[in-house]
Amino acid sequence: MMQFEYSTAGGESAGSVTAQFEPVEIGLMRLAASQLIDLLEAAGTNALGTADNQTLRRLLPDAYTDDPEAAAEFRRFTSDDLLGRKVRNARCVLATLGEEPLDEIAEEPGDAELSAAASAAAAQPVTIALDPTDVQSWLRTLTDLRLTLAERLEIGPDGVPQLSDDEAPFLHDVYDWFGMVQESLVYAIDV
Prior knowledge:
By secondary structure, the protein is mostly helical. Helices cover about 60% and strands about 5% of the residues. The chain is built from six helices and three strands. Residues about 100-110 have low confidence and may be disordered.
């Protein structure tokens, strides 16, 4: 990924930020945003019972930590709206990533030249342009994705991951990459 840059040019792109992503990064972002949407939509009306799902507890923390009854009442009135906004933000991220390119254009096994051309085109960086509304959706979704991964990695208040299984190094790299994307986006809009 190349750093996000703020566009000061006139016209349609004024006030937008752009960055180039590798196709694999686009795929990773699509997958993560889609999984976040699935998690949030599955929570739906069950959001009142998030005590059983630690990931949802990170995404929907209690408003009143010292008063479980007040926290449950607050959650009853706010969780559906909050879940809906989180889903809309993640859907916005998916929309700005564009259509998923076909992995293979050639249907005939003998059409190697077309397949090679498709592979070369798929390897080209993709430019993503975000307007101010998109930027806010991206920042919120990146926060939600990092919170989700932090729970999966068992990152506590000290910031140290406790997870040590085979997936931990990959998940930690993804967590760090989301942080880098988020930081780049924050710096780009801080003009």
